[in-house]
## 1
Amino acid sequence: MAHTYYDRLSAMDAMFLELEDAQTHMHIGSVGLYELGPLRKPDGGLDFERVRDFTESQLHKHPRFRQRIEWIPTFDRPVWVDDANFNLIYHLRHTSLPRPGDERQLKRLVGRILSQKLDAGKPLWEIWVIEGVEGDRFAVLSKLHHCLADGVASTDLLNMLMGTDPNYQPDPPSHPWKPRQAPAGRRLMLDEALRQAGAPLKLLRGSAESAGKPSGQVLDRAIEALRGAVHAAETGLHPASQTPLNAELGPHRRFDWTKFDLAEIRRVGKSAGGTINDASLAIVAGAVRRYLLDRAGAVDDLEFRVAVPVNMRTSDDDGRMGNRASSIIVTLPLAEKEPQGRLARIVEITRDLKHSGESQAVDLLGRFADFLPPGVMAQFSRFGTQSAVNMVVTNVAGPSVPVYLLGAHMLATYPVVPLMPRQALGIAMISYNDVFCWGFNSDWDAVPDLHDFVEEVTREYEAILKLGN
């Protein structure tokens, strides 16, 4: 009998599949801007064939790029199987702006591409190589379904195409890729039935393994998670305020970006006894306050909450695909009229949340959801996003040194966070070398003035820089 292969999605990975519909596009990604440099052809265009050949030579490092979703009959659970019809050219796409293409045109194109759902019948990723950007540059837009990777894992994935050595030449794979045969539906059903039958024993075994640790450590973790679950439940029972940034989503997207000095953001956060993330949230709070004052008239009584993903990866998770993130919910201090007051309050709030156990509770829910009926995590997420949270604000640590694609220097990279139900704006940030890059994803109709919001962020950045001097 031929050897077969499949890999089961975790409940958290599957959640992002179940959340997707015609208006909710669950792909993450980034827009990287590069110097054309060594990828310039004699006619001035971009050498896409080199990029294609290089990408093909690197795919063996991450087999997930050649896998698609299959569903287990009856149980309705997703698994990864090799795609026997994989075609790189479908996923690696080449296009151009009308020269000289400015950043406004590039942003419009990116928004249009982000408005298109990934094909669920194929491996769930696309990379668009976009030439013709003014300033002798080109862009690389990546789209990866959130079920495939979280923000941290997606950064690791894209690193397979980039490196710190501009002269790097990859070694070809040791043997040609051959898809492994997927199991028949009956085999998948039997395996899932056996897995579910053994779930109680697995939970007991996990408890026994925990019991082997110092009893105080196990008890402290359990108490911390319970405290966090109570805190999260109390937050969810009190809906966030509805604002112009919370509306039914349409199918179209706008995308914008900006960047700031990384050292300055770090300095401001440290001056208040906080972090880069605290300074960033204070900037978001100030921008939201300014934006809503113009559109809602009053903000002092608003309960405006943002979900802030928390990386839960350990050293054992290095290089692994999928999602290993939790989140905390931060209420932005919109009533604070001055930047200093907003930053101080943010530092206080996040310090308390770090000790609340909220992120641990959400992480444990994700682990236990693997043994619960399908869709539990998706229902939990829908409830939270539509009721308890106004916006997602995420921050990922990127490369601390310059990186290159076939010798072409990456100048900046702007991350993409998907919009959750009734959240018309999402903000993602990534540190890269000496800059702090911000990406803004929004619904086309609900936030027609996205650029105005980005300008508010810039004004708040300039105001907050005066602190800590």
Note: The first strand starts at residue 7 and ends at 8.
## 2
Amino acid sequence: MVALPRLVFIDVETTGGSAQRDRLTEVGWVEVNGAQVRRGQHLVNPGVRVPPFIERLTGITQAMVDEAPAFDALAPALSALLDGAVMVAHNARFDYGFLRQAMQRAGLPMRCRVLCTVKLSRALYPEHKAHGLDALIARHGLQPMGRHRALADADLLWQFWQRMQQAWGQDTLQRTVAQLLRYDNWPSHLDPALLEALPDGPGVYMFFGDNDVPLYVGKSKHIRRRVRSHFAADHRSGKSMRLSLQVRDIRWEETAGEIQALMREAQLVKQWQPAHNQRLRRNRGMTLWHVPPELSAPLQLGRAETWRGSDAGEAYGPFRSARQAKAMLEQAADEHGLCKVVLGLESAPKGRACFARQLGRCRGACVGVESLALHRARLLEVLVRQRLQRWPYGGPVALAEGEGEGRVWHVIDAWRHVGTWSEAQMATTQEAPTDWPEAGCDTATPMDWDLYPILRRALKVLPQRQLTRVTA
């Protein structure tokens, strides 16, 4: 059996749990290359404050990292250390995710395969339920030099590996590892460690091609599962196959929940215009039908982007173009006997029957046979699915999403997204939940029609305890 390449048992300490928001404070590793074993550890200046609970957990204080180098100074050596190796980590998606984000910010590659010791323990000991590091220490008699410090935890992984060699033998261990390193349906030109690093929670993911060209933006409540499904289906769909062959990199952003993921997806698609996204790409030139309060007044076609959520009168749409809006109304008139003259689609001398009435296809609102009130009621019944909901509040509100430290507040006003504030930001600014910075919305801001259905559903399904009135 072919021997495994270099192994780098690695652990990181961080300022929190999000690879996008938080930063590294320490990196420790044990490199095993045949009979040679080499250890290393570095504190990292994260450039942000170390939360007090992290200081208590790890013993890494703000004063310690203030004197440490930034990650950029350590990145070249770490990139070389991992290049071509198998990176072994416990709950590897966490460590790999932080290291990869840091490497990207430093502009350096991270080329390694990833082995998760949680998965290795589960594969070798399926009869046990617990596979955390504390469980492995107790089960296999590992000897910790300490806990929640990078080198000490990396050394525990090296001890675990040696115990597995003794218990199962080299051949069985290598077969198990080879199985865990094999990724069914994962494109061969993509780094397999990407799959290991993808988070299981909600967020957006981005596919990039050659020269960092954006190919596709998607969202999911389970990023890892959704990304893998793209490539699992590549043999069934020509579109999926083309996308699979073009992808050269995958990136992601974790979010507090589905609402934030949907909003971020819409924003990124409009920003990057990826070739494989057909929806969410066009917001200009959209139109609305405005139904005035006066029964005798014809419908007015207006620009959708100028709609104010609190506008008086009934509004219906949006439609991709004036042509589409008129075609919809023409079809509704033909199917339901509505008068095109009353609707404003045709003109005729006052008191004269419209052309459709002469053919028996209009119920006579143009000549008083049908009352204008009844005609209006039938029109609104036809259009009910396209009716826009007026903003139901007197000002901005905040939608809470997520739990604990990951909780965020989305401030919405007149169906426009004003901004999103995290619990951490609120704690930093010492502001009460109702004292949002710049909470008021400039309703001259063009309406984003991709966000309207997202926000409307969110307001409908979220319980009232997650809705807060905002005072600017």
Note: Residues 150-168 form the longest helix (19 residues).
